[in-house]
Amino acid sequence: MDKNISKPISIYALGGLGEVGKNMYCFENETQIVIIDCGVKFPGVEFPGIDYIVPDFTHLKNNKNKIRALIITHGHEDHIGGIPFLIQNVNIPVIYAPRLASALIKNRLEEYRMLDRVKIVEYDSSTKVNIGEFDISFFRVTHSIPDSFGVVIDSPEGRIVSTGDFKVDLTPIGPDIELQRIAELGREGVDLLLSDSTNAENEGYTPSEKNVNDSINEIFNDAQGRIIASTFSSNISRIQQICESAVRHKRYIAIVGKSMEKAVDISRNFGYIHITDSAIIATEDIKRYKASEILILCTGSQGEPNAALSRIASGEHKDIRVMPGDTVVFSSSAIPGNGIMIAHIVNLLTRCGAECITNSILADIHSSGHPSRQELRLVLKLFNPKYFMPMHGEYRMLRLHAELATSLGIPAENCFVLDNGDTLTLAKHKVKLGYQVEHGVSYIDGKDINGLAESVMSDRRILNDDGMLIIAVAIDTRNNNLIIEPAIYNRGIVQKHNEKALEELKTVITSAIREKLTSKPNFAELKTEVKDVASKFIYARTKRYPMIIPVIMSKN
Which domains does the chain show, CATH number per domain? Predict the structure, then answer.
């Protein structure tokens, strides 16, 4: 190939911009696509019945022959959780992942019976990979899960660096961030930097994991009864701290929930958690020990309705009931939108006599895995990029991060605050705005890899918020007569003490249908008439727009 021929690189996100979650960043030229991360976003209460939200893969399906590799920066669900759904839609020739992330991905693919569909290659900071025109290398960062890395993409068009998720923790639980390597890359020259923006609103430094360790030990020292500790199953560093503190304080560990069991099992196998088999007990054996000898480790720190902590709080868990004297520790910060669900669980637990400890100034039981503004400044200074694209964060976070870069001397016209689907083009060491690619979201219900359309979600929201009416009408089509009065089935609209309103609605619909039948309408016209009449009546009484399903039955 003639080295003078330029192959511009398009850089875009299918997820992760304007939001926290479902991270997916693509690097594409005319012959190949390399993807960094493929995550999920966990739905709030506004997505009834949905387990995950993943990127729309339509653009990748339309360019499936160009896909060369998926690179994973670390093992959190918002970076690996979408992989089963991706490989069901397109062929991924190889996944490059760090050691722990590789184990977590293999476990997830086994659940979906997909492990034989993709090759997984482990990497570390010494690994170098050639993928077509891209030479790829890695540097270690500190984060809230072991084995987290940034990615360097070198090409004839220029150098791109993605930090992945990171923070500059100088006293980490595990290996140090490779600041010397970051500085070396900066001296060599970085054309475009993509950097984590999640904590761009917070001045100063993100507290070290060591601070959390001290707070966790203090809780174990003070608690007289059982400790119920809840965190994300993918927050391996936090699980490691909690488990090892339990062992130091001579508490047995009961692990609740399949995802938590698997996380602990994998982490022990890889040497990240150091506890013996004798330290772990089954949930049904908890009653055999003193309250002061028990740690219950579970998921549900975000108040998720189906998570272990929610089932324990509501009395639905078969082996565990909350008791007066229990200390419940929420070792995570609230994801935006989950505050109401968390407050609900805290109230349930408090009613049962438990003391709830959430993250606060007085109890540093969670430290973010993301960089605050001083760390962002440091990394921007060390990389010293010509062009900058903030990533992974809601719009205000991206904007603040871009303004921070400008304050450090990067020209404002070289800082790009993008949305999912927007592209940048890197050609001959220069970056400019490009075209848009098809993007969006898919809603995953259970393990259905096809996802649900937005129209289905719209219907679910209506059912969840405004309820549903089914109106059954029986007619004699030969004589154009109404055989009996309509039957109305109500879900979530009219309360029992307002049943009189339903009787009035029957009368209104009966009158409307009889009048409509005089013009010999077809079934579609009758359904429209029923929907219009019922919708106006219900809105006048309740100021709500329920889903209305007319059912027209014919005698002939």
Answer: 9-204+368-444 (3.60.15.10), 209-357 (3.40.50.10710), 467-554 (3.10.20.580)
